[in-house]
Automatic annotation (TrEMBL):
InterPro entries named in the record: CHP03960_rSAM, Radical_SAM_N2, rSAM, rSAM_horseshoe, rSAM_sf
GO molecular-function term, one example from the UniProt record: catalytic activity
Pfam families: Radical_SAM, Radical_SAM_N2
UniProt cross-references to Gene3D superfamilies, sorted A to Z: tm_1862 like domain
Phylogenetic lineage: Bacteria, Thermotogati, Thermotogota, Thermotogae, Thermotogales
PANTHER family named among the record's database cross-references: RADICAL SAM DOMAIN PROTEIN, SLL1084 PROTEIN
Residue span(s) of domain Radical SAM core: 252-369
Organism: Fervidobacterium nodosum
Protein name per Swiss-Prot or TrEMBL: TIGR03960 family B12-binding radical SAM protein
Amino acid sequence: MVDSNYILRFLSENLMKVSKPARYIGGEYNSVVKDLANKDYLRIAFSFPDVYEVGMSHYGLEILYWLANNLDFVYAERVFLPWVDMVEMMEKNDIPLFTLESKTPVYKLDVLGISLEYELSYTNVLKLLELSRIPLRARERNDNHPIVIAGGPVTYNCEPIAEAFDVIYLGDGEVNLEKMLRVIYETKGMNREERLKLLSKIEGIYIPLFYEQEGRKIIPKYDFAPSKIRRNILKDLNSVKPPVKKILPHVESVHDRGVIEISRGCTRGCRFCHAGYVYRPVRERDADQIVESVKELISNTGYDEISLLSLSSLDHSQIEKIVDKLMEELKDKKISISIPSTRMDAFNIKIAERISQVRKTGLTFAPEA
Ligand code: SF4
């Protein structure tokens, strides 16, 4: 029988034969471990369909992991796509994809949540399902399979891959994540279609199985399925605290630094920009909450670089105040601030001078914006 012990044995025998073995061991500082012996949790694997060091840089996954694990009935773990040498090793040894935290096979969980950030990851999604031993199409799954959920910006145009998902969640996760997980938890053991029917009543949830194509339109097959699905919009960014316990990756991740999201949405409406449209409207986090969160993040992680995340960070209406307050706090501790994305014409020499007081970090310009 494939269980956590079986997978641990496989890892101890094979880890040193693959590149970057630390990608697969879990146990990182700040990762969440819950006692599975004494509680019947809703078991979730959140996944970014790419390798560990890419997935661990994804801020959306960090938000979901933090929100879900703060719910007392949920245990959320992570799973990423193994590198090709590990895929080969797993297939040779008949090992299914497993979670990093408890080494549980993904097919044994209640939910698999996959972040869709770009269309090029679609083939990885299929590989992830195949390695997890979950049928690729929602219609081929039975009551015992995990409910496979997609979220993220690509879900706004998800039809090319919609049949791979039982549930597609549109919009900001903070709004209806808890409601959705509670329905899944409370309907454990029920017929899959009945559960999906209940989920379809939640705002922002699209159940592809309940729809069909008519010409260029997607229309409901059943009366109970809503004909229009509106995305969830978190009206006030300050109403949900940002994650301040970032998991410290074992392998250097693509963006290896602390991150606090300072605003969501963008003041500009560049016609070519997907993010500029799907994250509308602009919502800012207050300067005080940003400063407090940065302090907590530093004390929980020890990072010496903090990134102020936004689609265009220097467009935040309080950016000078935020940078001033942070530099006051961080300068003597040699902790620097970086601005991950900004428009050229929003560039502000005063801010550039202030953030370079510790060391030269970075301002990333988006010249096309
Ligand atoms: S400024 Fe950048 S993020 Fe904003 S809409 Fe334009 S390209 Fe998109």
